[in-house]
Write a structure and sequence with these properties.
Blueprint: E1 2-5, H1 8-14, E2 18-21, E3 25-27, E4 30-31, H2 39-53, H3 60-75, H4 91-107, E5 117-119, H5 120-131, H6 135-147, E6 151-155, E7 158-161
Antiparallel strand pairs: 1-2, 3-4, 5-7, 6-7
Helix pairs in contact: 4-5, 5-6
Length: about 160
Protein backbone atom coordinates (compact mmCIF):
# COMPACT_ATOMS: atom_id res chain seq x y z
CA UNK A 1 0.00 0.00 0.00
CA UNK A 2 1.36 3.41 -0.92
CA UNK A 3 0.26 6.88 0.03
CA UNK A 4 1.19 10.21 -1.48
CA UNK A 5 2.47 13.00 0.71
CA UNK A 6 2.50 16.53 -0.57
CA UNK A 7 5.63 18.47 0.35
CA UNK A 8 4.80 22.13 -0.32
CA UNK A 9 8.42 23.13 -0.88
CA UNK A 10 8.89 20.32 -3.42
CA UNK A 11 5.68 21.20 -5.19
CA UNK A 12 6.68 24.87 -5.36
CA UNK A 13 10.18 24.07 -6.54
CA UNK A 14 9.65 21.05 -8.80
CA UNK A 15 5.91 21.15 -9.54
CA UNK A 16 5.11 17.56 -8.54
CA UNK A 17 4.24 15.37 -5.58
CA UNK A 18 6.77 13.01 -4.05
CA UNK A 19 5.72 9.39 -3.62
CA UNK A 20 6.26 7.77 -0.24
CA UNK A 21 5.60 4.22 0.97
CA UNK A 22 3.88 3.52 4.26
CA UNK A 23 5.50 0.10 4.80
CA UNK A 24 8.37 -0.20 7.27
CA UNK A 25 10.22 -2.48 4.87
CA UNK A 26 10.73 -0.69 1.56
CA UNK A 27 13.22 -3.01 -0.16
CA UNK A 28 15.20 -6.15 0.55
CA UNK A 29 17.57 -5.47 3.44
CA UNK A 30 16.43 -1.86 3.87
CA UNK A 31 14.25 -0.41 6.59
CA UNK A 32 12.48 2.87 6.93
CA UNK A 33 13.26 4.99 9.99
CA UNK A 34 12.17 8.43 11.06
CA UNK A 35 13.82 11.28 12.91
CA UNK A 36 13.49 15.02 13.26
CA UNK A 37 15.90 17.50 11.69
CA UNK A 38 15.79 21.27 11.44
CA UNK A 39 14.09 22.69 8.35
CA UNK A 40 17.25 24.65 7.55
CA UNK A 41 19.45 21.51 7.54
CA UNK A 42 16.97 19.58 5.40
CA UNK A 43 16.78 22.39 2.86
CA UNK A 44 20.59 22.69 2.68
CA UNK A 45 20.90 18.92 2.23
CA UNK A 46 18.30 18.87 -0.55
CA UNK A 47 20.02 21.76 -2.34
CA UNK A 48 23.37 19.95 -2.04
CA UNK A 49 21.84 16.83 -3.59
CA UNK A 50 20.35 18.90 -6.40
CA UNK A 51 23.73 20.51 -7.11
CA UNK A 52 25.54 17.18 -6.99
CA UNK A 53 23.17 15.30 -9.31
CA UNK A 54 21.88 18.30 -11.35
CA UNK A 55 18.31 17.25 -10.40
CA UNK A 56 16.30 16.01 -7.46
CA UNK A 57 14.75 12.60 -8.01
CA UNK A 58 13.12 9.94 -5.89
CA UNK A 59 15.64 7.91 -3.90
CA UNK A 60 18.51 10.40 -3.94
CA UNK A 61 17.77 11.71 -0.45
CA UNK A 62 17.77 8.17 1.00
CA UNK A 63 20.95 7.27 -0.89
CA UNK A 64 22.85 10.34 0.31
CA UNK A 65 21.58 9.95 3.90
CA UNK A 66 22.80 6.36 3.93
CA UNK A 67 26.23 7.40 2.63
CA UNK A 68 26.45 10.16 5.26
CA UNK A 69 25.52 7.75 8.08
CA UNK A 70 27.98 5.11 6.86
CA UNK A 71 30.72 7.74 6.81
CA UNK A 72 29.82 8.94 10.32
CA UNK A 73 29.73 5.40 11.74
CA UNK A 74 33.08 4.57 10.12
CA UNK A 75 34.66 7.68 11.65
CA UNK A 76 33.43 6.75 15.12
CA UNK A 77 34.36 3.07 15.20
CA UNK A 78 37.70 1.28 15.29
CA UNK A 79 36.90 -0.99 12.37
CA UNK A 80 37.98 -0.32 8.83
CA UNK A 81 35.35 -0.14 6.12
CA UNK A 82 35.48 -0.05 2.37
CA UNK A 83 34.15 3.51 2.44
CA UNK A 84 36.97 5.09 4.43
CA UNK A 85 40.35 3.45 4.10
CA UNK A 86 43.69 5.21 4.15
CA UNK A 87 45.53 3.75 1.17
CA UNK A 88 48.98 2.27 1.47
CA UNK A 89 51.40 4.38 -0.51
CA UNK A 90 52.31 3.02 -3.89
CA UNK A 91 55.93 1.89 -4.14
CA UNK A 92 56.80 4.81 -6.43
CA UNK A 93 55.39 7.43 -4.02
CA UNK A 94 57.03 5.72 -1.04
CA UNK A 95 60.38 5.66 -2.89
CA UNK A 96 60.21 9.36 -3.79
CA UNK A 97 59.17 10.23 -0.22
CA UNK A 98 62.15 8.26 1.10
CA UNK A 99 64.47 10.21 -1.21
CA UNK A 100 62.88 13.50 -0.10
CA UNK A 101 63.35 12.53 3.56
CA UNK A 102 66.98 11.60 2.89
CA UNK A 103 67.57 15.02 1.28
CA UNK A 104 65.91 16.76 4.24
CA UNK A 105 68.08 14.80 6.68
CA UNK A 106 71.25 15.54 4.74
CA UNK A 107 70.59 19.27 4.37
CA UNK A 108 68.22 20.56 7.05
CA UNK A 109 67.53 18.18 9.94
CA UNK A 110 69.31 15.88 12.35
CA UNK A 111 66.27 13.58 12.55
CA UNK A 112 62.74 13.39 11.11
CA UNK A 113 60.24 11.65 13.34
CA UNK A 114 56.49 11.17 12.77
CA UNK A 115 54.55 14.24 13.83
CA UNK A 116 57.44 16.60 13.21
CA UNK A 117 56.46 19.84 11.50
CA UNK A 118 58.66 21.33 8.80
CA UNK A 119 58.43 24.46 6.65
CA UNK A 120 56.85 24.01 3.23
CA UNK A 121 59.89 25.70 1.69
CA UNK A 122 62.16 22.85 2.91
CA UNK A 123 59.79 20.22 1.56
CA UNK A 124 59.50 21.98 -1.80
CA UNK A 125 63.29 22.36 -2.04
CA UNK A 126 63.74 18.64 -1.38
CA UNK A 127 61.16 17.70 -4.04
CA UNK A 128 62.85 20.05 -6.53
CA UNK A 129 66.21 18.40 -5.93
CA UNK A 130 64.85 14.85 -6.13
CA UNK A 131 62.20 15.09 -8.88
CA UNK A 132 62.57 18.43 -10.70
CA UNK A 133 61.99 22.14 -10.28
CA UNK A 134 58.76 22.52 -12.29
CA UNK A 135 56.03 23.95 -10.00
CA UNK A 136 53.53 21.42 -11.39
CA UNK A 137 55.86 18.57 -10.38
CA UNK A 138 56.26 19.96 -6.87
CA UNK A 139 52.49 20.40 -6.53
CA UNK A 140 51.87 16.87 -7.84
CA UNK A 141 54.24 15.27 -5.33
CA UNK A 142 52.87 17.32 -2.42
CA UNK A 143 49.37 16.13 -3.33
CA UNK A 144 50.58 12.53 -3.65
CA UNK A 145 52.30 12.66 -0.24
CA UNK A 146 49.13 14.06 1.31
CA UNK A 147 46.81 11.58 -0.46
CA UNK A 148 48.93 8.59 0.61
CA UNK A 149 49.13 9.71 4.23
CA UNK A 150 52.86 10.44 4.26
CA UNK A 151 52.63 14.18 5.02
CA UNK A 152 49.86 16.69 5.58
CA UNK A 153 49.54 20.47 5.59
CA UNK A 154 49.12 22.10 9.00
CA UNK A 155 49.10 25.71 7.79
CA UNK A 156 49.75 27.09 4.31
CA UNK A 157 53.49 27.18 5.08
CA UNK A 158 53.97 24.27 7.50
CA UNK A 159 53.63 20.52 6.80
CA UNK A 160 53.70 17.58 9.19
CA UNK A 161 55.60 14.38 8.45
CA UNK A 162 53.41 11.36 9.26
Amino acid sequence: MQSFVLYPYLLARYGRKEERTTDMKTAAGRSKIGFFLSDELIEKFRLLIQQKYKCYEKGLLSHECELALRHWVALHTNTQTEDIVTPNPTPRVALVFALVKKYLLDNFYFELRPGQQIPLAHLEKAIMEVRGADPRTVRKWLQAFHRMGLAKPITPYVWEIL
